[in-house]
Amino acid sequence: MGEIDGAFIQAIEHRPKPAIVEAEGIPLIDLSLLNTSDDPRVLAGLIAEIGDACKNWGFFQVINHGVPSGLLWGLLTAGKKFFDLPLQEKRKVRRDEDNPMGYFDTEHTKNVRDWKEVFYVMVDNGNVNSASHEPADQELHKLINQWPEYPPELREACEEYSRSVEKLSYKLLELISMSLGLPAKRFNGFFKEQTSFIKLNHYPPCPTPQLALGVGRHKDPGALTVLAQDDVGGLEVKRKANGEWISVKPIPDSYIINVGDIIKVWSNEKYESAEHRVVVNSEKERFSIPFFFNPSYYTVVKPIEELIDDKNPAKYTEYNWGMFLRTRMTSNFKKLEVENLQIHHFKIPQ
Ligand SMILES: O=C(O)CCC(=O)C(=O)O
Ligand SMILES: [Fe+2]
Question: Annotated Gene Ontology MF terms (predicted)?
């Protein structure tokens, strides 16, 4: 990535400061009960814990999650071999605005360049996505995975890993649904033609980590994010209660679960999608792999009927998920002069 260029420099108010490391930190939830029972009465304590974490933090970590650790290790190893290739090799599978799957090294978040390189892979290859909000863009777009020649094992590692994390995502979705007092499978129908994808993130060491961010502050737009990180650390979450940035301590063999904007809207703001960002450091590279669990492109996102009434009216007007995703993906290719699309643009003034 070379010398730090002005495009990476964050405005003063968004530059990283030493983050607070909380003794307790974000909630840590043990999912081992899931292996022994799916009876809601047995699971009641776990469901309540998840509900509290979604409400108070929008973030939690899980252990005993059922994803074999070898799958993550295999994918991290294959991903590292890919990122070690020369830039011109990686750019042979470069993503672009027509097909946003593949490699990219100039991603922007909120119109500032991120100190990272990435590789995007669809979980269900070939699913389509909507047109964007651009008036000239009326067509459906196919999301097609692009595979590099080297390392040959990358494809299988991505496919096996995402199938396993998908299972965990459905379990979490069902627990979240029950925690809102809804039937376990209330949300499952939205994921028939899921637009879920994984992203391999590589954050190289940065000579001026006080000026740039690995990923600028943002909220994840989908339903849920299931994030694996290595042992380097750097993820920070903005605490809902007081707006302070808290660092998320790497815990071996755990996943970080992050409520996305869609669950915030479905729950009519009972649950939070927390702002987060990634700080980089001058010594160590870091790898992370988020799995973005996203519904079908044609999903109309709005507060769930059972959760609204006269006393608690809908806080959002409906929006089309595929359009939202496409517009957001397009905005991470370059610096724009306008704020990129956010759910607060659909908020009903109360
Ligand atoms: O690398 C991380 O820890 C988080 C990355 C992230 O927030 C994202 O890719 O949306
Ligand atoms: Fe994120």
Answer: dioxygenase activity; metal ion binding
Over residues 224-263, the pLDDT tens digits come to 999 999 999 999 999 877 888 999 999 999 999 999 999 9
Instruction: Supply the ipTM of this predicted assembly.
Output: 0.99
The residues pairing with 61 across neighbouring beta strands, listed in sequence order, are 28, 256
Answer yes or no: is 36 within a domain: no
Residue nearest to atom 3 of ligand 1 (CA): 235
Read off the tokens for 322: 């595929």
Q: Which ligand is nearest to the CA of 273?
A: 2
d(CA 34, CA 43): 8
Mutate to test the pocket of ligand 1, among 236, 278, 293 (most ligand atoms within 8 A of CB): 278
Task: Assign residue 321 the CATH number of its domain.
Answer: 2.60.120.330
Q: How many domains does the chain have?
A: 1
Residues with CB under 6 A from ligand 1: 199, 201, 215, 220, 227, 229, 235, 276, 278, 288, 290
The closest of 161, 154, 166 to 119, measured between CA atoms, is: 154
- Of ligand 1's listed atoms, the one at least distance from the Cα of 292 is 10
